[in-house]
Design a protein that fits this description.
Layout lengths: L1 H25 L8 H5 L2 H22 L5 H30 L8 H20 L10 H4 L2 H17 L16 H27 L25 H5 L8 H4 L8 H5 L11 H10 L1
Helix pairs in contact: 1-3, 1-5, 3-4, 4-5, 4-8
């Protein structure tokens, strides 16, 4: 199972890289194309990070090494951004169709927005060995999209280009529509992150053993292997060591075994040594 998941992650990373290159070639003919504009899309930035994360996580899975907590947090953040970019793009495509405006969706765009976002979600839900992620990640997911949005608005006012309509003041009213659309985007990021963190903490993790960790020694119950009478018998007001450790002779071993040793009977040197050791 782990080998299969590792191979699938590497294949998804290769598909993502191929789609990024193909989409770059596709938009070369657009009048608004520029290299900076291409890399200014939230989808492109999140999928570039996704290619790196899928490659590293795939190699770790093939080697049977669990993800470190810091990398698992990064994995969750990138997964959140990829899923949100797919959801937002899907809404944009649906809205454009309802307004008699068609958006071209080539295969490369489908891979980046729909197929990869579906894959990373399924991978996060079902892949074995998921490292638990802390709840503080929900707040850590917000700085990047907020900084990206502020920079995009600042740059768009100077170059006259916005990657998404809800950031363009010419397409949305200020402040009601602007706050509504961007509030939905931020809320979606928070909701997806909460879901991913919850899944990492609730579902069985089945983590592999850490290489170099000492073997676990099973605990031994005191008195195991002794008869109930031997475990309950006190010696001198206390339970003797012999009643706690099996296989060690005790002073009253003769009585418990039915040997019938009396107080006046001679004691052999070997028996005396065993009695001394038991005390």
């Amino acid at each position: 199972m782990r080998r299969l998941v590792g191979v699938l992650r590497l294949a998804a990373a290769a598909a993502g890289l191929s789609a990024l290159v193909s989409y770059f070639v596709y938009v070369l003919g657009f009048s608004t194309f520029s290299t900076i504009n291409y890399f200014s899309y939230f989808t492109q930035q999140s999928n570039i990070a996704n290619v790196v994360v899928l490659t590293v996580s795939g190699v770790l899975m093939l080697r049977g090494v669990p993800e470190p907590r810091w990398f698992a947090s990064l994995h969750a953040l990138v997964t959140t951004y990829v899923i949100v970019s797919g959801l937002v793009y899907g809404v944009i495509v649906i809205e454009s169709a309802s307004h008699n405006y068609t958006i071209g969706v080539p295969w490369s765009s489908q891979v980046l927005h729909f197929y990869l976002s579906t894959f990373v979600l399924i991978d996060w839900v079902f892949a074995p060995g998921r490292t638990r992620v802390r709840w503080r990640l929900v707040l850590a997911a917000l700085p990047f999209p907020i900084v990206w949005g502020l920079f995009t608005i600042w740059r768009g006012a100077r170059v006259g280009w916005y990657p998404y309509f809800f950031l363009d003041p010419a397409q949305v009213r200020w402040p009601d529509e602007f706050v509504l659309y961007n509030g939905i985007a931020i809320g979606t990021i928070i909701g997806v992150t909460v879901g991913l963190v919850a899944l990492s903490r609730l579902r069985p993790r089945n983590r592999p053993a850490v290489p170099g960790a000492p073997p676990r020694i099973p605990s031994i119950r005191v008195g195991a292997g002794l008869s109930p009478e031997a475990r309950r018998r006190p010696v001198g007001g206390r339970r003797s060591v012999a009643t706690q450790l099996p296989g060690v002779a005790s002073p009253d071993a003769g009585v418990s075994s039915g040997a019938g040793v009396s107080s006046g009977a001679p004691v052999s040197p070997g028996a005396g040594e065993a009695d001394t050791r038991s005390r």
